[in-house]
Amino acid sequence: MGYLTERIQRIEHSIQQACENSSRSRSEVEIVAVTKSVSTARANEVKEAGIIQLGENRAEELLVKQEAISDGVEWHFIGNLQSRKVRDIINEIDYLHSLDRMSIAKEIQKRALNEVKCFIQVNVSGESSKSGITPEELDDFVSSLKSYDKIKVVGLMTMAPHVEDEKVLRTVFKDMKTLRDRIMAQQLTHAPCTELSMGMSNDFVIAVEEGATYVRIGTALVGAESEGFN
Ligand SMILES: *Cc1c(COP(=O)(O)O)cnc(C)c1O
Predict the structure, then answer these.
(1) Which of 58, 98, 105, 122 is 20 to 30 A distant from 134 in Cα terms?
(2) Is there an atom of ligand 1 within 6 Å of 34 CB?
């Protein structure tokens, strides 16, 4: 069995286990393979292995990979997006995970030809190094997106702090779910907010146990370009 297939099976097994532990259905969780640090060739292998949702954090790199891989992939933009780059990618992607300010929303409204599925990035851990709006700003931010008919708020996204402490991670993910549930309960047309994008290579099991519906897995899935692959 190839190295990649083995990695995918291991991740799949962990996700199934996490779903069982939390009485969730496996079908509630989507895997986004984060290919930002590997080549187009390897991203294509990931797709061929059956993971068809790919995540990139730089506009240029996404466009290069997209042109080479083209069909059958859903593209997720997971990085901090500069206003001037919005026009380059907004009509090329399926999901934007990093909506966190009005200037980006305005630019999307101006440039998007169709409605764009967006996650609002929230900084629940309060680390100043992380992008995202604060939990306190969330309600107002969601409200102010109401008139932007090119933006559909499908969910919330976060990056957990880089710590080992499981308790800290769980608290962050639980807080995110609480925030998501609160918006979802309002049943807003422009912000159904049913999804939770959280969990990376080191913490996706905990994130799934706490309610993640999209996990964004890089190194644990695609490896690093410097490693051999098969
Ligand atoms: C790089 C990145 C990931 C994946 O990180 P890994 O630790 O390699 O799994 C997920 N989300 C975002 C926003 C990233 O930038």
Answers:
(1) 58
(2) yes
**Dihedral angle over CA of 217, 221, 226, 229, nearest 10:** -160
Query: Does the C-beta of 180 come closer than 6 Å to ligand 1?
Result: no
**Chain segment 127-167, per-residue pLDDT in tens:** 877 789 999 999 999 999 999 999 999 999 999 998 889 99
d(CA 24, CA 45): 29
Amino acid identity of 163? V
Atom of ligand 1 nearest to the CA of 217: 9
Domains and CATH numbers, the chain: 2-222 (3.20.20.10)
Rounded-to-integer distance, Cα 141 and Cα 134, Å:
10
Instruction: With CA atoms as reference, report the closest residue to 216 among 207, 225, 224.
Output: 207
Check residue 228 and give its pLDDT.
58
* pLDDT value at residue 230: 46
Question: What is the tens place of the pLDDT at every residue in 61-99?
Answer: 999 999 999 789 999 999 999 999 999 999 999 999 999
Is the C-beta atom of 57 inside 6 A of ligand 1?
yes
Sign of the C-alpha dihedral computed for residues 8, 228, 55 and 164 taken in this order: positive
